[in-house]
Design a protein that fits this description.
Blueprint: H1 2-18, H2 22-33, H3 38-45, H4 54-91, H5 109-123, E1 127-128, E2 134-136, H6 137-140, E3 165-167, H7 173-180, E4 186-195, E5 207-217, H8 222-237, E6 243-250, E7 253-261, E8 284-289, H9 291-296, E9 305-312, H10 313-321, H11 334-337
Parallel strand pairs: 1-4
Antiparallel strand pairs: 2-3, 4-5, 5-9, 6-7, 7-8, 8-9
Helix pairs in contact: 1-4, 2-4, 3-4, 5-10
The structure holds phenylalanine (PHE).
Length: 340
Amino acid sequence: MKEELKALVEEATKAIEEKTDLKSLEELRVKYLGKKGKITAFKKNISKLPNEEKPMAGKLINETSREVEKILEKRKEIIKKELLEKKIKEEKIDVTANFDIYETGHFSVINQTMAELEEIFQNMGFDVVEGPEIDTVKNVFDDLNSPKNHPSRSLSDTFYIDEDTLLRPHTSSMQIRVMNEGKLPIKMVSAGRVFRNDEVDATHSPMFHQLECLVVDENASLANLKSTLETFIKEMFGNDMKMRYRPHHFPFTEPSLEVDVTCPSCGGKGCPACSNTGWSMELLGGGMVHPNVLENCGIDSEKYTGFAFGLGVDRIAMVKYGLDDIRLLFDNDKRFIKQF
Ligand code: PHE
């Protein structure tokens, strides 16, 4: 019996070593140590042995069972460890991997255009200033010399928060903020969002972007304004871009003007997009700072003059990239965004 048990242990050990998963290991345990198992079978035969041999045989069988049990446990631990290692290896995240599913984003066309504009003006020696989107009626209208009955003040044109505060309908309030700081001369630009109660169409949006420019100095002139604008248009659109000035009216500039450029759709020949004029929609409004505005900010209008303009960033982007609808800029359609 001893020899048989020994052979059984050898057989079991060999089988156990070959197993690589817990399920087949459990099957082996049943095969040898289960109720109908090969080793258990020996126990059933003890009763047939002579009495004096019974204790020794029982001991031997128990020892054999324990030995096989031990080998099974050992193998079980090894398999568990291997499975864990395999799992860790498989789940490891390779941070250096370049997965195509992740796309790198980029700044929107508007932010790209705004950054480009700021750079052009910085290269011309302008400071870049930031200001709030919510401003006071005083900064937005009163100190900008807007008459109390000016249409842009009405609720149907402008979003009020209360009587004295509103979402700025233009960046010109930044002129007042910077002049009130009391440092002269001034040479600044300030870009950001503005809000108007406008119906949405191909060229209008209730939220759009402007860049305000203000120069206040002892000899600032209309000639300076024109040369600044012409330098800027060439930098932004290249030397071939033509521009034209049209007289206009703003309460805070005198004289006032508006600027158009060559129609981006037809290059100036005339087409449906420009109603056959060959010119774009107006890109900016500007003029010489009204003396009342300077005085409202405590600046001596006998000594100082200024020029200012506000340009539509969205319209600049539309001309630059040949877009026929402002809504493209805000729709967040990936097919559009990806092109920039
Ligand atoms: N604020 C004007 C507008 O929104 C533009 C402007 C700015 C005109 C500065 C003159 C001077 O249309």
